[in-house]
Amino acid sequence: MKDNPNTVSFTLNGELKTFAAGPDEKLLALLRREGYRGSKFGCGQGTCGACTVIMDGRAVYACLLYAMQAEGRSLRTIESAGTFEEPAEFQKELISAGAVQCGYCIPGMVMSATALMETETVFEDEIVREYMDGNLCRCTGYEKIWIALRKVLDRREAAGKTSAKGGKK
Amino acid sequence: MKLCAFIRPTSLSDAREVLRELGPKGMPLAGGTALHFMPTKTPVTAVDITRLGLSYIRQEGNFFNIGAATPISDIQRYRGPRWAMHEICRRISTHQIRNISTIGGNICRVFPWADLPVVLLAMDARMTINSGTETEVPADEYFAAQPAKRFSGGNLLTAVKVPVLEAHHGFGSVKATRNAAAFSLVTVAALLELKDGHIKSARVAAGSAIPFPHRLPSVEAALAGREAVTAVFKEAAAKASADARWCAREGMSADYIKQLAEVSLLDALEKAAAFAKGRTE
């Protein structure tokens, strides 16, 4: 049994890291103090989704996890998704659609969409809504974000169908 | 809830031992999403129970055995014969919470808005509690009072056993909310056993708009032996107030909640009857 550790180790964006952490510290607080500031503090109570990160392949709220809960897990933050010079596919579409107004919700939106794209192969609207239902936007509205996401998902579905047809030949 | 220490036991017996030693100063932590909102005068030691092999769903004989630390999203995605738990799990909070929050956390300490106690009462589920030996507690007994008091002295909920529905059984649940991710205004669930188009037996439960989830015996009595048709469901749903003192919720008056509960009950009964008549998988 690990008795009251004062460090936590987990894989962060592909690198194994160890951080000093107190038992009461939230994962979001740890990430932000260690420089991973793309994950935002919004509501701090598991409602808005601005702090969404991916833990072991699943989208989770970093504000509702104690840092110690991440021990041994694999975490990804928005810093793993794309860069200013080379944004990820969904990030490009968000920009094209004019979906980024204040931008505060966008890191969380991108992480939830990443979990969706990595887990599912069929992107029916109901499935997409289920993955995105924990992310709020309070300035752009959802229409442009939805249009951007739908473009990416439609492309992926079409590519999936093409490769499936290719496989049958 | 403020934490003063965090312990990660590696076996169920270790977890029980440390919780027994800590007494009220210890708190089992699975998803931990509710801990952030629980006020405490003094900090507690969190005992992480997510690494004890308690996350699984297995069909064993006439039951689906669900490990207590199984996330809600796993239950939502699972599919088994005549599986009925996914609908209510899809309606619990948001995607991110469902990925972390567990079935055990939802029912070890029952909050007024919890949905799973209502469903498990209607389903006649059984809770497995490990107190050195394993004991199965039927839902009626488990939810007769706040279950949290059962978990003093290192006792841990290890599994929830949900019956596999038989061909003539049907289940329906309805959660009424102001928006998709909001806490429940009222949650209702119904299990119907049909024979030749008539209701042989019924288990109906409600929660969230009442102080503590419980069954609705007047509704059940109004269904027993009757034909499984809308008129009977409406008549039975109208009896719910005999068993429940509806509370005002989120700006809605108690009278509004009463009407909402009756409409929700009608929907749940219709769903259950359709399930019993039509769903064969």
Mean pLDDT of chain B: 95
- Number of DSSP strands of chain B? 12
**How many domains comprise the coordinates of chain A?**
1
Query: Which chain pair shows the most residues in contact?
Result: A-B, 28 and 32 residues
Name the CATH superfamily assignment of chain A.
Answer: Beta-grasp domain
Identify the strand order in the major beta sheet of chain B: 4-5-8-6-7
What's the CATH class label of chain A? Alpha Beta
Global morphology of chain A: globular
Low-confidence runs of chain A? none
Largest sheet of chain B: 5 strands, antiparallel
Order of helices and strands of chain A: EEHEEEHHHH
Task: Kindly report how far apart the N and C termini of chain B lie.
Answer: 44 Å
Q: Kindly state the mean pLDDT of chain A as a whole number?
A: 94
State the CATH class of the largest domain in chain B. Alpha Beta
Assess the beta-strand content of chain A as a share of residues. 5-15%
In the residues of chain B, how many domains can be counted?
A: 3
Q: Looking at the chains present, what oligomeric state does this protein adopt?
A: heterodimer
Q: How are the strands of the biggest sheet of chain A laid out side by side?
A: 2-1-5-3-4
**Class from helix and strand fractions of chain B:** alpha+beta
Unreliable spans of chain B are: none
Rg of Cα set of chain B: 19 Å
